[in-house]
Amino acid sequence: MHNNKYNFHFLGTTSMKIFKVVFGFTLCLMLASCNGNRLDVDISSIEMEDIEIKRLDQDVFNLDTLNLEANTNVLIGKYGNFYKIFVRSILNNGGMRDSSYAYRMKRFITDKDMSEAYDLCQATYPNLNEFNEELTRVFKRYKYHFPNSEPPQVVAMMSGFNRSSVFVDSTLAIGLEMYLGKDCKFYRMLGLKNYKIIFMNPETMMSDAIRTWMFEEHPFKMNKNDFLSEIIYLGKILYLNDALQPNVHDTIKIQYTKKQLDYCVQNEHNIWTYFIAQKTLYTTNHAEIIKFTGEGPFTAAFSKESAPRIGYWIGWQIVRKFMQNNPAISVQELMAIDDAQTILSKAKYKPKK
User: Fold this and answer.
1) How confident is residue 19, by pLDDT bands cut at 50, 70 and 90?
2) Is the pTM of this model over 0.90?
């Protein structure tokens, strides 16, 4: 909490009223900051058109397969260069100039499993109204923190189970079939691990997409390639998630179960002590770094009850502490800091036993 110093002088009646109003407003802001609401900013004055996610999934599966060439030009007109990237790099169907383009697209659209997956997507997402509203708020918050930014085009797609989300050519694309819920039969057929499947649901879709977008908007530019720099960078990305979705639970933003998050909170001191004792913070050994940042059901260096990617969770807490202890630092300024040691030092991060 930032301690402002006031010089108190004798005030007349009118001045006293003004002082009470100003002091009351300032106190509210200070209390909001202390209560962790600093990122729940007022976006009512941010001017921006409402976001509408384009339904490339529907446009593709409604293509007239007998007249693909003409319909393809319509899609290029609607989605721009992204449609070409979608066909070439997401569906892996070859380029637009590939002579087999029409055949490959027709095979994709009429494939039995893909058709069934498409029908499931339409049943799960008959419209994207709630997501449109959420993304509009997200983009307004981003513009609040980064005033010169412009929102990307947002597209819902069927990626052929290839991508959950992708940001390319100023387009944020979301693979709806990757968010059909843990009981979707296709995930088992594809051999996906349970620790991944449990988060493949509508609740995680927006946070996933936001992280994908943020990784492209704010690529790794730390001045070192050690463990500390890695976890601080991911901590900054997760803090952006805090800023853009201030009312979304931590379990969704980092994809932890409640039990995994509880483990981190209850063992924060022990985890940090381990990193210090094992001199992990400044290692550049990739194999050592991946032990604490890699995907999996848990972090193998700890117990099977632990959470995965524990290093990233610690980095997130350090960044949160840094921003809490340095209220004059804006979110935009945070993202520009390339020295992890500076953030750690100014965070004064000392988790309690």
Assistant:
1) very low
2) no
